[in-house]
TrEMBL record:
Localization of this protein: Membrane
Transmembrane domains' residue ranges: 12-36, 48-66, 87-106, 112-136, 143-163, 175-196, 208-234, 254-277, 282-303, 309-328
Organism (species): Ilex paraguariensis (yerba mate)
InterPro entries documented for this protein: EmrE-like, PUP_plant
Name assigned to this protein: Probable purine permease
Length: 351
């Protein structure tokens, strides 16, 4: 995979994308749950909002385009888009899968408390690791295995207190179905992350961050297309005005919630594929999993969900796993740089 980004710039981009992913991963579920808590009940609409903010990606793409025009000796040589047909088709396929994953996830959030749905989504890390091994031959170190183990144990600890959190007025059947749909969402997105990495590897073109933005836009466009069909079949567009009038926080705040949801979810998807570009799908999965306790704490603050001792233990385990992974990466890069220096010295002596 040819990447036209310096090592230092890639590190900066990785940090930025980690921050973007953190905002989207914690804020997305909270604002989606806010919609359901205060009277919203349109699952296809919620899934549409997960990727419906894709036009916002046009802003940085246009900025980059006009920058290229200003710096090129001939404005005519500045390309508007860099994606080749092969990469476009692959991104479209991933986008269609993402659209179905959006629906599965939104259905789970509609039926489960944030603490429970976040817990189930944490199992995504195991799916990501497995599919990364199969699709992109991901190599595991003792540190990355330790991180996966600790994050998985943290999720298991949280499971100790999910038996009595069924929302009032919800049937056992709806609760169980929400549970199953969320597991399916975790499994599917655990497949999508390595698939994006594989797409980069097989693209047969240089992958720059501008191309990453284009991939994000195409993926979200086709995911939104899937959800738009679902909304049409479910008559969601006709119900929006009525739902806005009946929304618990008021009609104006209803539309504010929808717009903010679309923007925040773009942070999540852009951050996820940005981390894959800068590092790997496994790291993207680990960051998503390690943010689980943060989402739990925010749910306690904003929605008054209970914070048992198990959640505190899960927080410690998650942070431990996060530190373990990055310590392993630090040691690996230090060893790699040391070997490179020794090779250069050997070549110099030989000459």
């Amino acid at each position: 995979m040819e990447v036209l980004v310096s090592s230092r710039m890639k590190t900066i981009l990785l940090i930025i994308n980690c921050i973007i992913l953190s905002i989207g991963n914690s804020g997305g579920p909270l604002i989606m749950r806010l919609y359901f808590i205060h009277g919203g009940d349109r699952v296809w609409l919620s899934s549409w909002l997960e990727t419906g903010g894709w036009p916002f990606i046009l802003i940085p793409l246009l900025v980059a385009y006009f920058h290229r025009r200003a710096t090129k000796s001939s404005a005519a040589t500045a390309k508007l888009f860099f994606m080749k047909p092969r990469l476009f088709i692959a991104s479209a396929v991933v986008g269609l899968l993402t659209g179905f994953d959006d629906y599965l996830y939104a259905y789970g959030v509609a039926r489960l408390p944030i603490s429970t749905s976040a817990l189930i989504i944490a199992t995504q890390l195991a799916f990501t690791a497995g599919f990364a091994f199969l699709l992109v031959k991901q190599k595991f170190t003792s540190y990355s295995i330790n991180a996966i183990f600790l994050l998985s144990v943290g999720a298991a600890v949280l499971a100790l207190h999910t038996s009595g959190d069924r929302p009032k007025g919800e049937s056992n059947r709806e609760y169980v179905l929400g549970f199953v749909m969320t597991v399916a969402a975790a499994a599917l997105y655990g497949f999508i992350l390595p698939l994006v990495e594989l797409t980069y590897m097989k693209a047969k073109q240089a992958i720059t961050y501008t191309v990453v933005l284009e991939v994000q836009m195409v993926m979200c466009f086709f995911a939104t297309l899937v959800c738009t069909v679902g909304m049409l079949l479910n008559n969601d567009f006709k119900a929006i005005s009525r739902e806005a009038r009946e929304f618990g926080l008021g009609e104006t705040k209803y539309y504010v919630v929808l717009v903010c949801s679309g923007i925040i979810w773009q942070f999540f998807f852009l951050g996820a594929i940005g981390v894959i570009f800068c590092a790997s799908s496994l790291l993207s999965g680990i960051i998503i999993a390690v943010l689980l306790p943060a989402t739990e704490v925010l749910a306690v603050i904003f929605y008054q969900e209970k914070f048992q001792a198990e959640k505190g233990v899960a927080l410690v385990l998650s942070l431990w796993g996060f530190v373990s992974y990055f310590y392993g990466e630090f040691k690996y890069m230090k060893k790699k740089n040391s070997e490179a220096t020794e090779t250069e010295m050997t070549d110099a002596v030989a000459q």
